Amino acid sequence: MKPVPRYTEFHPRWYRCRVSTYWWVGHRRYLKFLLRELSSVFVAYFVGLTLWQVRALAQGPEAYERFQQTLRSPFMLALSGASLFFLMVHAVTWCNLAPLAMVVRVLGRRVPDWVIAGGNYAAWLVVSAVVG
Amino acid sequence: MVVFALAVPLGWVDPPSHEALSNLVRHPIGRMYLFVLCPLPLFHFAHRFR
């Protein structure tokens, strides 16, 4: 005789394999990708720092001096160093990725990858030189 | 980041005076630069972080 199955009026829970939120930490490729995405936080930090500086400038010479004093603290210097590192990672990875993101054709021929990447690096250098 | 957050605080270069920097920020080209420099990177950050 067959066993009678037990029914319930509620829908059974789906089986879902539990995956850690940080599963990507153990995978080098995904870790690199996530670190690249997280480096955009430092892009926002740079804008915040610039706006803070403009605010200090608008408030007068004393506020500007206080702003500069704050930037001289070891914590802020360490944060600035880390920010610079992640901003460089962000910029370099983008320049290297640009040939894959932009496929440019001239006279029916695809522009070589190194020309597009080189153009990005050149533009970066020119803008940095002008702003600096 | 290099100039204002590292070079000036570490004493590698002399800090620009308040007056000189204020004039630069108030200049139309300076304003235009800030107008572009601020929103676009924030949009870039938000697009990646959302």
Structural features:
heterodimer, A: 132 residues, mainly alpha, 3 helical TM bundles of succinate and fumarate reductases, two-stranded antiparallel sheet, 67% helix, B: 50 residues, 0% strand, flat
Approximately how much beta-strand content do the residues of chain A carry? under 5%
Largest sheet of chain A: 2 strands, antiparallel
Strand content of chain B: under 5%
CATH architecture of chain A: Up-down Bundle
Number of helices of chain A: 5
Biggest protein-protein contact in the assembly:
A-B, 30 and 25 residues
SSE order of chain A: HHHHEEH
Average residue pLDDT of chain B:
88
Helix content of chain B: over 70%
End-to-end C-alpha gap of chain B: 24 Å
Question: What class would the helix/strand composition of chain B place it in?
Answer: mainly alpha
The biggest sheet of chain B, with number of strands, parallel, antiparallel or mixed sense and barrel status, is: none
Number of domains of chain A: 1
How are the strands of the biggest sheet of chain A laid out side by side?
A: 1-2
Shape of chain B: flat
Oligomeric state of shown chains: heterodimer
Question: What is the secondary structure topology, with strand pairs?
Answer:
The complex is a heterodimer of chains A (132) and B (50).
Chain A: H1 28-38, H2 40-59, H3 61-71, H4 74-101, E1 105-106, E2 109-110, H5 113-131
Antiparallel strand pairs in A: 1-2
Helix pairs in contact in A: 2-3, 2-4, 4-5
Chain B: H1 2-7, H2 18-26, H3 28-37, H4 39-49
